[in-house]
């Protein structure tokens, strides 16, 4: 359970507040989700089917410095999940969603997004287990990056396989591979095909603490070279990346948990090595439960990421966030998050060639949200979201406020 909470916390931290603001309610969890000791999680049902309706008012949907960019956005969605035993210890996991986004003013942004995951989860004997799966999602490019009302779809397809072999009750070897294909028709030079291979060793104590090492090797191919004006040069954005690190999860006491990874990342480009990166990277989280109904979480991260929404081949992101949570009742809880996130666009070929300044941006903001289980089938989520960005590039500063209300019906 704590590993799942850790993964969710890192998603919160690595997703900037400038992302599509419906994320502010999508990441909220119910009080009965197992976060608070006072309310243990309900048994996982073999399947879920839901429909949802939400509305968001945003004072600056296009994330521009000036102008009237307010917008009322409506989202309609359907989704479901199924976990089914097939034979013996073999099972299948299926999950999918379909969402329609309707803009009141900027109708050219109306779009349909989707996401789906299919996994075969296997166990062979008592020692070998893992999963083989595929996923695909389609979404609108981040409006905080393109800053215009333009339909700009991105499709991400991923194939993956994982395995873990237990060498005994405490020690295990694990490995995995993934192939990720990004496709963005409007910026073909941003398209990358990435092959990732990972491996590691974990030691699990009798108390459930985990310590281990892991290595990862990634190779990204960019079929279309990027044109750098005004030089008229075409630059290959292909790269190789190597990561090595130490991971750990520790239950310090019944009221405090610590988890994280610290290591070194090295990225080399096929061309223009002046934008290579080599340095420390980390993810860390501390969770404190002062009472059975309250929690406080702090997260810190530094990572190198290829983000297809952005023109740079990679960015270096340092983030810090913290926030409390309070379960007023078994059906109602409140959560808050405050974030600071400096970003350096060091992979930009134009900056490496000296024809454009190195883009440096600083994002900060906060989110306040609540999750109310009105009944087993009807769930309400609410959020207030504020964010701002400072940039050394003219026209990229912004401030926005957003409010979201959503209802989900679970069949």
SS-based structural class? mainly beta
The end-to-end span amounts to 25 Å
| Sheet with most strands | 18 strands, antiparallel, barrel
Q: How large is the radius of gyration? A: 22 Å
**SSE succession:** HHEEEEEHEEEEEEEEEEEEHEEE
* Number of distinct beta strands: 20
Helical region count?
4
Q: Share of helix among residues?
A: under 10%
Amount of beta strand: over 45%
- Reading off the top of the CATH hierarchy, the class is best stated as Mainly Beta
- The tally of structural domains comes to 1
The pLDDT mean sits at: 90
Mind explaining what this structure looks like?
The protein is mostly beta strands and 411 residues long. The chain has one domain (2-410): Porin, CATH 2.40.160. The chain has helices at 2-14, 23-26, 143-146, 349-352; strands at 47-58, 71-87, 90-103, 111-124, 128-140, 153-166, 171-183, 193-204, 210-221, 226-228, 233-235, 239-253, 256-269, 277-291, 294-305, 315-327, 332-344, 360-373, 378-391, 398-410. The chain has an 18-stranded antiparallel β-barrel. A hairpin with a 3-residue loop joins β4 and β5 (128-140). It is globular, with a radius of gyration of 22 Å. It starts with a helix and ends with a strand.
In short:
The chain is built from 4 helices and 20 strands.
Question: How are the SSEs placed, and which strands pair?
Answer:
Layout: H1 2-14, H2 23-26, E1 47-58, E2 71-87, E3 90-103, E4 111-124, E5 128-140, H3 143-146, E6 153-166, E7 171-183, E8 193-204, E9 210-221, E10 226-228, E11 233-235, E12 239-253, E13 256-269, E14 277-291, E15 294-305, E16 315-327, E17 332-344, H4 349-352, E18 360-373, E19 378-391, E20 398-410
Antiparallel strand pairs: 1-2, 1-20, 2-3, 3-4, 4-5, 5-6, 6-7, 7-8, 8-9, 9-12, 10-11, 12-13, 13-14, 14-15, 15-16, 16-17, 17-18, 18-19, 19-20
């Amino acid at each position: 359970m704590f590993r799942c909470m850790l993964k969710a916390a890192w998603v919160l931290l690595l997703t900037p507040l400038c992302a599509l603001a419906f994320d502010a309610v999508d990441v909220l969890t119910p009080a009965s989700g197992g976060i608070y000791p006072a309310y243990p999680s309900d048994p996982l049902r073999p399947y879920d089917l839901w429909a949802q309706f939400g509305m968001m008012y945003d004072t600056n949907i296009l994330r521009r410095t000036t102008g009237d960019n307010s917008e009322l956005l409506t989202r309609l969605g359907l989704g479901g999940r199924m976990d089914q035993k097939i034979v013996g210890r073999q099972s299948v996991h299926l999950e999918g969603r379909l969402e329609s986004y309707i803009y009141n003013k900027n109708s050219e942004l109306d779009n349909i997004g989707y996401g789906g995951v299919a996994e075969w989860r296997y166990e062979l004997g008592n020692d070998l287990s893992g999963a083989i799966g595929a996923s695909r999602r389609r979404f609108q490019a981040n409006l905080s990056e393109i800053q215009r009302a333009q339909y700009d779809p991105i499709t991400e397809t991923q194939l993956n396989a994982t395995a873990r072999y237990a060498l005994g009750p405490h020690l295990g070897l694990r490995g995995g591979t993934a192939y990720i294909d990004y496709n963005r028709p409007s910026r073909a030079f941003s398209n990358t095909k990435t092959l990732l291979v990972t491996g590691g060793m974990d030691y699990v104590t009798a108390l459930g603490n985990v310590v281990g090492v892991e290595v990862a090797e990634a190779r990204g191919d960019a079929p279309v070279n990027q044109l750098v004006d005004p030089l008229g040069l075409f630059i290959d954005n292909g790269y190789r990346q190597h990561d090595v690190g130490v991971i750990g999860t520790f239950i310090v006491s019944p009221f405090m948990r610590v988890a994280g990874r610290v290591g070194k990342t090295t990225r080399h480009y096929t061309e223009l090595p002046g934008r290579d990166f080599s340095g420390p990277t980390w993810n860390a989280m501390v969770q404190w439960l002062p009472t059975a109904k309250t929690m406080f979480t702090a997260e810190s991260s530094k990572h190198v990421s290829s983000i297809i929404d952005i023109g740079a081949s990679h960015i270096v992101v340092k983030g810090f966030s913290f926030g409390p949570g309070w379960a007023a009742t078994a059906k109602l809880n409140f959560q808050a998050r405050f974030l600071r996130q400096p970003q350096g666009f060091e992979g930009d070929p134009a900056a490496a060639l000296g024809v454009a300044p190195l883009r440096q941006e600083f994002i900060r903001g906060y989110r306040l949200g609540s999750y109310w289980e009105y009944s087993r089938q009807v769930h309400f989520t609410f959020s207030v979201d504020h964010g701002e960005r400072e940039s050394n590039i003219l026209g990229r500063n912004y401030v926005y406020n957003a409010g979201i209300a959503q209802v989900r019906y679970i069949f």
